[in-house]
Amino acid sequence: MEFIILVPIVSGLALGVAFGALALATNFCAMGAITDQLLMGDGRRLRAWLLAAAVAILGTQALGLAGLVETAGSIYRGGTALVLCSLLGAVVFGFGMVLAGGCVQRALVRTGAGSRKAPVVLLAAILGAGAVALLPGLPIPDWPAKVTVPELLARHAGLAPDFAGGAAALVAGGALLAICLASRAFRTSARDLAAGIGIGGLVLGGWLATRPDGIAEGSLNFALALTAETDAFLIAAALGTVLGAVLYVAPGRRFRVERFADRADIRHTVLGGFLMGVGGALAHGGTIGQGVTGLSTLALGSILAWIGLVLGAWRGLRYLESGKLFSVVNHD
Predict the structure, then answer these.
(1) 88 and 145 in contact (C-beta within 8 Å)?
(2) pLDDT score of 1
(3) Hey, which of 23, 50, 59, 123 has its CA 20 to 30 A from 189?
(4) How far is 87 from 246, CA to CA, in rounded Å?
(5) How far is residue 309 CA from its own chain's centroid?
(6) Mean pLDDT, consecutive 10-residue segments, the chain of 332 residues?
(7) Exposure string for 55-92, b = 16+ CB within 10 A, e = fewer
(8) How many helices (H) and strands (E) would you count in the chain?
(9) DSSP state of 135
(10) Is the dihedral of CA 161, 163, 165, 171 positive or negative?
């Protein structure tokens, strides 16, 4: 029994250490990826995020066809995520991560790298997730968030489940790979290629690590690690991410001490962290939990969540530029 309990802790810690070191070494950041694309026209980091999703989709479906991984019991397919919560929660998360200067995953990495702001983000996110836990149940139909693209193909196109899963993975994963590799700047960026392949591979490792007797019903999900629904694997992965960043910067003492600039910075950081906690709890994940791990199951709720993350981040950037929540900035 002690061994069974120890497995998710050790595996979560190991995967987290690898994730923290890799994310810091490659500057992997979903918020930064969206910012680079929208404000500077540089899509390399965005393609790294998409490549991670492509690797996770193709790998997860392959593991499923081989009988090595079963995602049917995960929160993305069998949990209580609501379709509106997946979309709206992700919008709130995306908006919050811009105010906070990065998502939950990035806050964990920044904490290990020496930031004094990032722990405040994490604390605020925990409070936000706790606030959601106090809400009463919402009477919103939850069926769309539980349905996957392969299930729809099998149901409405008369395809065999395994064939539908393989076909959907090849189309979705192949399309994402084509988008990524269409850019020469991305193809020649060893850093971004390593980020996408490595992060996607770690999500696959997470599925394999949580497979034994269902102690953890899913792979890496850092936003969910801050909620009341967390488990030993997710907590260990979150702590391991901090440790991985520490181990990466410690040899050369390259700690990036980050302080608050002013009171406005404090307000944005606290509010952003709180909104991420709220959004992550409602959507059951954030940029990694839904944007990579969730997408690997091809669940409709995760697809909606990814769209919501991008929309929320876009609105957050416009808010920081204009100071108005619903204005549109004219760059001409």
Answers:
(1) no
(2) 44
(3) 59
(4) 34
(5) 10
(6) 66 95 95 93 95 95 85 69 76 95 94 92 94 68 60 76 83 94 94 96 91 63 83 91 94 77 88 94 91 91 91 92 66 46
(7) bbbbbbbbbbeeeebebeebbbbebebbbbbbbbbbbb
(8) 15, 0
(9) S
(10) negative
Distance in angstroms (rounded) separating the CA atoms of residues 100 and 274 = 9
DSSP 288: T
Two structure tokens written together for 259: 């302080």
Q: φ, ψ for residue 262 (rounded to 5)?
A: -165, -175
Report H helices in 66-189: 75-78, 83-100, 104-113, 118-133, 143-146, 149-156, 161-181, 184-187
- pTM exceeding 0.70: yes
What are 187-218's pLDDT values in tens digits?
A: 999 999 999 999 999 999 999 888 755 433 67
Backbone angles phi, psi at 9, to 5 degrees: -70, -50
Longest Cα separation, the chain: 65
